[in-house]
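Notes, Module 5: Reading structure tokens.

Key idea: the token line is not a picture. It is a compressed description, and you learn to read it the same way you learned to read a sequence, by spotting repeated patterns. We will look at two proteins. The first is printed below with its tokens.
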Amino acid sequence: MRRMTTNKLPALAAAAIISISAFASAKPATLDWFAGHWCSDRNGEFIEETWLAPRGDLLLGMSRTVKGAKTASFEFLRIEWTAGIPTYIAQPQGHPPVPFKWTAGGTDWARFENSANDFPKRVEYRRTKEGLYAEIAGPGDADKDLVIPFNYHACPN
């Protein structure tokens, strides 16, 4: 192993600061693009997800899935900032909250992950020309990731 000379330390420190600031700037300044009433109608399921515009350090959302004339599932959702990091919190069927920490994103997409959760381990949203795209992913059969996509469009009033 080569010994590092002290004249290389300032360059390494600068590179570390740039890397840290690049990560910090990758955090979304706002997630206001979530806001809206989003619908999906596929395979006999009607899914709607509604997100209120962010206020303070919180976005509130809810989702329901209807098959025929019956509600098949519902979910309470929120994104809150904890120590400056957005955390997606899901409560399917009103069960205890499950947090997913923000791990990546940009001006129109966000990825949240929780490696300790059984399924999903990842929740991702992207704003598209057509509306809002979401997917959940985690372990599936034969050690392959199972990805379930949701293509939402703005719901008619």
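Here is the second protein, with the sequence above and the tokens below, as before.
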Amino acid sequence: MKHLKPVYISILTLVIFTVALLAGMQTDWWQTEGRSTPLGETGGGRGESESVEETGETQEDHVSVSVSGSTTVGDAVSLGLTFEQLSEVLEGEITKADAGEKIKDIVTQRGLQFGVVKDELNSLLD
């Protein structure tokens, strides 16, 4: 029996890996987000969750509608808050220029408590 040289084994390994990766991407088996696999199993190590078939909900139904630590001013406006409401709760002027800034960072700069501000903003969303 003839043996393969180590260089050919390395090349063959890379080719097999590349083909498997491309095939997985084309068939939606290669997923980089925590969504379910084509067999309906949940992935991403995020615990058990109900599938869309069981709940009748779509992915859009799971979009967060609350302010959290990573929420930016732009995100808050997209959720339905106005610049005036944000300015009032954050105790200072908030404009479109602040859209990319995290609310938590603004709260810290202004010496406010994030938990209190978050609760006030979320109550405005309800």
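Summary for the second protein:
- Residues 45-53, 57-62 have pLDDT under 50 and may be disordered.
- The two ends are 74 Å apart (CA to CA).
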